Amino acid sequence: MSITDSPSAAAEARAAHRSALAARHGLDPDRPWLLTVAMMRRGDKLDSYRVLARALSQVEGDWQLVVAGDGPARPAVEEALGRFADGRVQFLGLLDAEALPPLYAASDLFVWPDLREAYGMAFLEAQAAGLPVVGGADGGVAEVVYDGETGRLTPPGNARAFAAALKSLLDDAPA
Fold it and tell me: pLDDT tens across 114-137, in order?
């Protein structure tokens, strides 16, 4: 895969990407993959990770969270997501642009509660790969995600609503 390949081209090879990523990162290809792609820094990003952790604690089932991103707040992010000590969370670290289209294509849902997100490029990339999203209706995200069509939008910071939206998409996923 080269950097000029599009996310939609990556989607066509979903099974191959999923198999390769599962082997490389120890992911279970039979469990739903919830993907988040975000930097790890203090402030809004860390607050968003904390909302995500609270929401995921309300979602039962056999999902796993795949986290692409890194930064100075990683210890705090790991602490927030540490309640999932059952191996449900896999940190991939900072990935280059070339590695993202296969990851989007291989995943089942893109999840990010995005507190005060200026634009939401990761939401566009996820949708370009055909990935439904769950996000917070804050900042520019509401301009790139069409609630009920390309994903679900929830009130900013509302972990309960985020969990409910996530559950609804997991329940609707093909078997």
Answer: 888 777 789 999 998 889 999 999
